[in-house]
Design brief:
It is found in: Cytoplasm. With about 475 residues, the protein is mainly alpha-helical. It is built from 19 helices and twelve strands. The strands form five sheets. It has a three-stranded parallel beta sheet. Strands 4-5-8 form a three-stranded antiparallel beta sheet. Helix 8 crosses helix 10, helix 16 crosses helix 19 and helix 18 packs across helix 19. The relative contact order is 0.09.
């Protein structure tokens, strides 16, 4: 039996959870969860000037909203600096690394001379094979003694085999002169120590993989399975940026997209399973694999996101929808719903879920149940409540008082009054909707009457008549 995979998501806490990062996290989560494996979280907080606790919190909240649960506690890369340095010292002792005493000025001079002579500007340190007896008492960095001949091949699950000539890869720095580890070293040590079997990340890391692989080999560690996924572009085919709109996951929560719709859409962004567009988490976990990932950048499309969100609203369990609505209101700083509002909303949800794509749309459609008397009509619906319409509503009131409270009976009562005035049912529904909901868009007037009941319906009609 194949060993269960261990994947990881390793964001830098320098800002919000980017939509591209969210998709990377989702792909790692799906791959691990669909195979009974582990999904780990590592915060790459070694850039102390830019890493903030607020950004870490934003990333954790973004993942939580997306429903991407991780195993164990998040690992801080900065807290493991001692371990990273220990590995560099091991490589030094084994002859896989060396102390380089070259100054920044010497390196710059080497590159300038190489450029002028048309040679490779890849720095070749004179200290690579120097006798330790010649080492000065001066600051130094620790460099990897990378192979100079042959090639490094990344057997990538998405990109195929990618080959780098070793003469194109430099002796990268592992420890800086102040003894702090570099990102390249830290990533490899952390992935190895965390038992990561599959590294699934953006294809902007493909060149890093070739250099990181040399550290794995130097340490005699097992190399993980690589899968470098194409980046996300905007609708215009350019790299996703602020000009295309929202970039942070929390912005999508604030816009009111349901998390299930967001997961579904992000999964489809660069991965496919036949012609399937709408699917559940369980289906995504069962289906997700590297063979479905395309090699070209995916294009972000708001219309597709909205379409999938609408389908997820329609399919969502009422309890899950109400729970997420609470989280949406909290995230946007809106007042929480009262117990009475929740009760009314739960009753009305079957009428509300169809056709909505975001929580603001749901709230707008639910205005009739969330508002309390007197209902104040908005500008558009107020136009339907002229003197003539008010008169007709007052004539309708006794018919409704005596009707049995069923849809057929209510329709018959309204149809009778409309016919007496030579009106079509829809014409009378407009002022009725304005009186009951205060909006031009709402569920059917009969559905609203059934949900709010006889007493509330009659009271709202009385208010509208002034």
């Amino acid at each position: 039996m194949t060993e269960a995979p261990v994947t990881r998501f390793a964001p830098s806490p320098t800002g919000y959870l980017h939509i591209g990062g969210a998709r990377t996290a989702l792909f790692n989560w799906l791959y691990a969860r669909g195979r009974g494996g582990k999904f780990l979280l590592r915060i790459e907080d070694t850039d102390r000037a830019r890493s903030t606790p607020e950004a870490t919190e934003a990333i954790l909240k973004g993942l939580a909203w997306l429903g991407l649960d991780w195993d164990g506690d998040p690992v801080s890369q900065f807290a493991r600096a001692g371990r990273h340095a220990e590995v560099a010292q091991e490589m030094l002792a084994a002859g896989h690394a060396y102390k380089c005493f070259a100054t920044q000025e010497e390196i710059a001079a080497f590159r300038e001379a190489a450029k002028a002579e048309g040679r490779s500007t890849l720095y070749q340190s004179p200290w690579r094979d120097a006798d330790p007896a010649t080492h000065p008492d001066a600051p130094y960095v620790v460099r990897l003694k990378a192979p100079r001949e042959g090639a490094t091949v990344i057997r990538d699950q998405v990109q195929g085999d990618v080959t780098w000539g070793n003469d194109q890869l430099d002796d990268m720095v592992l420890l800086r002169s102040d003894g702090t580890p570099t990102y390249m070293l830290a990533v490899v040590v952390d992935d190895h120590d965390m038992g990561v079997t599959h590294v699934i990340r953006g294809d902007d890391h493909l060149a890093n993989a070739a250099r990181q692989m040399q550290i794995y080999r130097a340490m005699g560690w097992e190399v993980p399975i690589w899968a470098h996924i194409p980046l996300i572009h905007g609708p215009d085919g350019k790299k996703l940026s602020k000009r295309h709109g929202a970039l942070g996951v929390e912005e999508y929560q604030a816009m009111g997209y349901p998390s299930a719709g967001m997961r579904n859409y992000l999964a489809r962004l660069g991965w496919s399973h036949g012609d399937d567009e709408f699917f559940s988490d369980d289906q995504a976990k069962a289906w997700f694999g590297f063979d479905g990932i395309g090699k070209s950048p995916a294009r972000f499309d708001f219309k597709k996101l909205e379409n999938l969100s609408g389908q997820h609203f329609a399919a969502m369990e009422d309890a899950a929808l109400l729970h997420e609505l609470d989280a949406y209101l909290a995230a946007t700083g809106a007042p929480a719903l009262t117990e009475a509002q929740k009760g009314g909303l739960a009753k009305a949800l079957p009428l509300l879920k169809g056709g909505v794509k975001t929580y603001p749309q749901l709230i707008e459609k639910a205005n009739f149940i969330l508002s309390s008397r007197p209902i104040v009509p908005d500008e558009k619906s107020a136009k339907a409540l002229d003197d003539v319409s008010r008169g007709i509503l007052s004539e309708l009131t006794p018919h409704l008082q005596n009707a049995s409270w069923t849809r057929d009976a209510l329709e018959a009562a309204v149809a009778e009054v409309a016919e007496a005035h030579g009106l079509k049912l829809g014409k009378l529904a407009q002022p009725l909707r304005a009186a009951l909901a205060g909006r031009t868009v709402s569920p059917s007037v009969f559905d609203m009457m059934l949900v709010i009941g006889r007493e509330e319906t009659l009271a709202r009609l009385a208010d509208a008549q002034g």
